[in-house]
Every structure is written in C-alpha cells, then in structure tokens.
Amino acid sequence: MDSERASALPPHVLIFPLPIQGPVKCMLKLAELFCINGLKVTFLNSQHIQRCLSSCTNTESYFQRYPNFRFETVPDGLPEDNPRTVNEFFEMLDSMKAVGVPLFREMVTSGPYGPNSENPITCIVADGAFCFAVDIAKQIGVPLLYFDTMSPCCVWTYLCLPKLIEAGEVPFKGDNLDEIVVNAPGKEGFLRRRDLPGFYRTKDLNDPNIQSVLKENRNLPLSQGLILNTFEELDASILSEMSKVCPKIYAVGPLHTHVKTRLRTGTTSNSILKEDRSCIPWLDMQPLKSVLFVSIGSLAVMTKEQLMEIWYGLVNSGTRFLWVRRPGSVVGLDKEFEISMDFSQATKERGYIVSWAPQEEVLAHPAIGGFLTHSGWNSTLESIVEGKPMICWPYYVDQQVNSRYVGEFWKLGLDMKDICDRVKVEGMIKELMELKKDEFCRRANHLANIAKASVHEGGSSYKNLDQLIQDIKSMTF
Ligand code: UDP
C-alpha cells in the first residue's frame, strides 16, 4: 500500500490471537480499548473459538457498544470434536497454519480487507507465536505489531535462549534443577533451572517448543512493536533489558482493569466456557478473606494422584474453599472420587465446587483471601490487581517463571513448583491464609494500588496505550 493512500485511510486494525482462552481473552480487551479510542477493529478468531465464545458470552454486546468492531473467522482445520488440549498444541498450530492462514492471507491481500478493497487493513496485531504474520504484513505493506500475551519475565527468558544455548546452560548438564541460571534474566540472578519454561528441561534442541521460541526471537525485530499485558512498575527491570533487543515496547496492562477503568463499567467476560455464577451468592455468605480460590485455568491438567494430594492438603488445612473442577482437567478422574469430593463433609461445611467460575469477579470478592493457581499470566495479573496472595502450582510455558517471580521477586505468595504433596499443600495454605496472612496481604494491597493507578489518567499504562494508538494512527510501513 502506498504511504499516501495509507495515511488517508481510517485506521483499521486486524487482531489475530492464538485460538486459546488466555490470548483470546486479553486480545479482546485490547480490541475494546482500541474501539473506545476510535480505531476500527476486525477480530479474527478460529471458527471453533468463535462458536465457544458465542455460546458462553454475549458477543452482541460488542456490536452494541462498538459499531466499529467486527468478528471474522477462519477454520483451524481440526474436526469439531478434537479436544484441542494443550498436549496437542502443535497439532492445532500446524493445522491452523495449513488451513486457516492461507484464508487469512487471502482475506487481507485480495479479499474483503485487501489494499484495494473498501475496507483495507492498515495494521496487524498478531500473537507473538504467529511468525507467518511478518510475511503477510510485508506483502500488503502494513505495520505489524506483535502481542505476547504471556508474562514479560517469560518473554525475557525466551529472548535469552540463544545466549543460554551458546553458554551451554541449555540443555541442562546434570539433573540439578536448583542450579542458578547465569545468562537469564539479567541482574536479578534468582532464577533456577526449574524456574525456566518447563520445556527448557529438554535434552534435545530440536524440541518443537525450543525451535519455535528461536524462530519467534528472529521474527520479533521484523515487527514495528511489541505489546505486553503488564504495567511498567511491575516489570521495570525486565522491560529495560528487553528494550535493548526489541522493537518499541508498549506495556498497556493489566488489560482487564484498563478496559473497566476507561469504560467506567463492567465488561463482557470473554469466556469461552460457561460460567457458573452460583458461587457468588455462596461467597457473599462467607467471612472476609476467609476463602481460598482454587483453579488451574483453561488448559492445565493434573493426574488423579495430584488431585488427591491437593484435595487432602486443602481439606486437612480446614480452610474454606471455592474449587474450579474444569471438565477434562483431571486425567483419569474416576466418578467415585468426583462424587466423594462433591459430597464430602468438607465441601458441605466450608466449600463450593464449580466447573468454571466468573474468575475476575471471584478474585475481586471480599471473601476471597488467597488463590491456589497454576500461575497463568492472566490469572496472576487478575490476582495482583485484586490484592490476593497466591500459592503457585505451575504447569507449563510461562507458569514456571511466573511462580518464581510471585514467590521470590514480588513476594506475593508461595511457589509450590514441582511438588505435589498433601502435607506441603496443607502447610502452604496455613502459611498463606493464617500465619503470614497480614504480611502477604499488605504487600499484595500495595501492588494492587500501583496496578490500578497505572491504568488511570496519567498512569504508565494509560500513557502507553495513548502512545500505541497514536502510533497506529500515524504508522506507515
Ligand atoms: N478463568 C475463568 N474462570 C475459571 C478459570 C479461569 O474465567 O474458572 C479465566 C481467568 O479469569 C483467566 C483465564 O481464564 O483470564 C485463564 O488464563 P490464564 O492465562 O491464567 O491461564 P490459561 O488458561 O491460559 O492456562
């Protein structure tokens, strides 16, 4: 597209998230912020995600609120009954690349959003894992911004990977996972091998996860900028390290709070699973800060044995709890144990179990005193904003890094990484909910206030979003 035509067009951003709950949710928040600020947005979902979203949330509300917003879809190439679990992530990505991406390319080159159409795209925002976006943006002559929806501390460990390999730190030599890593994350020096993304434990550099990170690293400088769901005050040192090797960085989070603040009302939940809201009236009846919220997000799974260790640790702690038992999240769960959880004395007296919760609202509830989490980045940010201390039991990708930051750097909770033992679980719950409750709550409240201030007028994320929007309006390729 020539620059004269580009600058005459109204800004029209195409947003393309990875087709999983976390990235879809936070990119939808970004889309709302763009629309509030006068940009036109086309949100490209896989057909599967769009079906889930439409059946679980009020997608009409987007069109009512934002006349300049529209959804588009491409198939992900998988049969509808494919479970699309985390273990088949590369199958899904490969299938998406083979089936959905050519359609996306056609859409923005010769199709309804092509340079010569009535409705041309003027900027692409794509998930950091979508390396193909560089070529497509180049072909149509529009700027590309990557959005890494995982934590910046993990993105930084990704960017350090070539150095780690060169220095012989990855693959790990020997089995000691407690050895301190020298070449990441920079100054702090508190990351152990076990705190790096789980797949860094591989002995094989041809591992698809490793190869995919190296490719993402090579692609990042070819984009015009990197959007991150964080606020400067939380990740100052990491952002400063990253800015030496990245294109322009825009820290505009926490996005869910940012949208609420700018709209001054609640937002659409963006959930692709049906929320069970009956837990809210139950929470209303519980004492202040007395309930531990237990959830491992939309993708993580645990074995039946791990479930039992966490369950008995929780029950033995005597704490009130709200437990999210997502269907399919326990491998080999037998009906008998499920029923014994549902009808146990502990659940009757002090617990509540749902299959999926309105998590943002739950974490904001005054009865919640702590969060036993898999340390997904959205969950971590949602907990930080609400000032809720965490017990971290990470599962994969950025979660191992996040949990170390929660425990050791931000000191907002306890990192249970790599351990799943009922005595340990019970001990940590008592430490978080009783013994060190005041200490953790004090720190969590302090950081929550900083997080909220960052998205108010004059705050760091508020200013960064304004800058991002200005840049999108003025950017030409
Ligand atoms: N979530 C929810 N209800 C639940 C559990 C999770 O709405 O019962 C939402 C949560 O608010 C978060 C997202 O699902 O925004 C999970 O994202 P995260 O990055 O924490 O983990 P992932 O699911 O990607 O592993």
TrEMBL record:
GO molecular function: quercetin 3-O-glucosyltransferase activity; quercetin 7-O-glucosyltransferase activity
Keywords: Glycosyltransferase, Transferase
Keyword DNA-binding: no
Residues in the signal sequence: none
EC number: 2.4.1.-
PANTHER family: GLUCOSYL/GLUCURONOSYL TRANSFERASES, GLYCOSYLTRANSFERASE
Family: Belongs to the UDP-glycosyltransferase family.
Name used for this protein in its record: Glycosyltransferase
Native source organism of the sequence: Olea europaea subsp. europaea
Source species taxonomy: Eukaryota, Viridiplantae, Streptophyta, Embryophyta, Tracheophyta
